[in-house]
Structures are given as C-alpha cells and as structure tokens.
Amino acid sequence: MMSSLYSRLYLVIMENDPSQKCLLTDELFDDWKNQRITRVNDCPVEDIDIPGRPLKPELVNPRKVPRRSLASEQGKLILLHSFAHIEFNAINLALDAAYRFRDMPDDFVTDWLQVAFEEVKHFRLLNEYLVELDSFYGDFDAHNGLWSMVCKTRHDVLHRMALVPRVMEARGLDVTPGLMDKFAHAGDQRAVDILQVIYQEEIGHVAIGNRWYLYCCEQAELNAQKTFQQLIDEYFGGQLRGPFNRPARLAAGFEEDELNELESCL
Fold it and tell me: How many domains does the chain have?
C-alpha cells in the first residue's frame, strides 16, 4: 500500500529525535525515488513555527551564542556544533519546502527531498565527529535564524527560493573556504574533509534554489534580478553581507551581472 507524501513529510518534520529524523528522511527519499508514495493532498498545510527538535541545544538570541574560535579546543567544539546546528535545521528546511508548496512540479519535490537526504549526511558527519571529540549535538546553545527566515517566507514559494537558498545558504559558500583554511592551519584535517564534502554539495543546493527561483519568476512573468533586489530591499534593507565567493556562486547558477550589481551595494 502506497503511503502519502504530505503526511509522511509532516511526521518527519515534527520528529524530535535527530537520529530518528535522519533515518525517516532517508526512508522517505528512497520511497519517493522508487514511487512508493502518492502525492494525494490528504492533510492541510500547517504553519510550523517550531519544527521537531531535541530539548538541547537551547535556542538563544544570536548575540548570546557562545564564541566560536579555533584558539581553544572548546572554541573548536562550539564552531563544529554551530555547523551541526545549521545542517540539522537545513534538513527541516528542505522537507518544509516539499511539504508546503504543493502546487510545484514533482521535480521540485525530488530536488528538495534530495537536499534533505544530503543535509542528513552532513549532520551525521559533524555529529559523529563531535561524539569522537567527547561532545554531541545539543552540547552548546544555538540560535534560530535560519528557521526564522523559513517562517517569514512560508506564504510565497518565490520568496522562499529567493531568500533561503540564494541568501542564507549561499552565504555558506562565501565563508566555508576561509573556515577550511583555518581548520587546516590548526591541523584538523578531519574537519577540513567534512567541510569540503558539505561545501561541494551545498553548491548543488544553492543551484537547486536558483533553478526554482527562476522557474517561479518565469511563471509570474517577473524579471528575476529586479525581483531579487526588491526582495533584498524588503527583507534585508537593500544589502547583503559580503564578500561573495564568485566562483562558487557562479557554479551555483548566479549570473555575472547579478553578482556585479549585488557587490556594488556592499
């Protein structure tokens, strides 16, 4: 008997245990790829203000998050923990895109379930390394910035594709190479290798966001670059954080003239 995509998605999003959420995500992606799931709209779309998550980490104001630095072993753990928190949130983020925007094509579902599957891999790599270092996901406080943007854009798939993959996740492409250099300088090749896997696959995730953002603009007969700048004005006061990693952003589907315009506003 085939199961329902949207009921399954809701259950995975609301699962609190990280290990179980990862396992359920893997199973959901496999079932979708092998056509064991129907897309019958059998449950209403709920506004999920708080997705399933463990009791720890405690979510605090970003200014109160512990300092992340490679100057000490504690600082390194906090930095690795922050990466794990981002990847855990990214699982929910990708699942929510497939769950929420039900008028999008099947390829949209496939893309975001694949993203969720890969975010699971990233989270596992980081959490396993934390455990080897006598830590774990939940050991330090974290903030909820990424999910907050998910909530702000849940009313419009175009806004979601513009601002989560193309802004929030693309920022990771800008900063990760520098972080890899710092870990290499500190002699932590394991962290470098993990971040390299994440970096390469995140280029693909941003590319997926770019693909569907352009699709939404075409469907609405909107100029993609002008619309993006209008959304940056609306949500970020007209300016993004830089500098930009141009090679990675170009590989992820940004255009040269678009990057030139964004950089002119830095």
Answer: 1
Mean pLDDT over the full length of the chain = 94
E strand or H helix at 84, and its extent?
helix 73-100
Sign of the dihedral defined by the CA atoms of residues 66, 72, 78, 83, in that order = positive
CA angle 103, 211, 82 (to 5 degrees): 95
85 and 57 in contact (C-beta within 8 Å)? Answer: yes
pLDDT, tens digit, 9 for 90 and up, residues 205-245: 999 999 999 999 999 999 999 999 999 999 998 778 889 99
Helix residue spans in 138-239 (DSSP H):
145-152, 157-163, 170-185, 189-220, 224-236
Beta-carbon-side half-sphere exposure of residue 208 (alpha carbons within 13 Å): 21
Cis amide linkage into residue 177, ω under 30° from 0: no
Give the Cα separation of 169 and 202 in Å (integer).
Answer: 8
Say how many C-beta atoms besides its own lie within 10 A of residue 162's C-beta.
Answer: 25
Nearest residue to 212 via CA among 100, 125, 117, 118: 100
When pLDDT is cut at 50, 70 and 90, the band that residue 84 belongs to is: very high
Structural domain boundaries, residue 76:
3-264
- 13-22, 80-89, 97-106, 236-245: least confident range: 236-245
SS3 breakdown of the chain: % helix, strand, coil, rounded to 5? 70, 0, 30
| pTM over cut 0.85 | yes
What are the structure tokens assigned to 226, written together? 């002008």
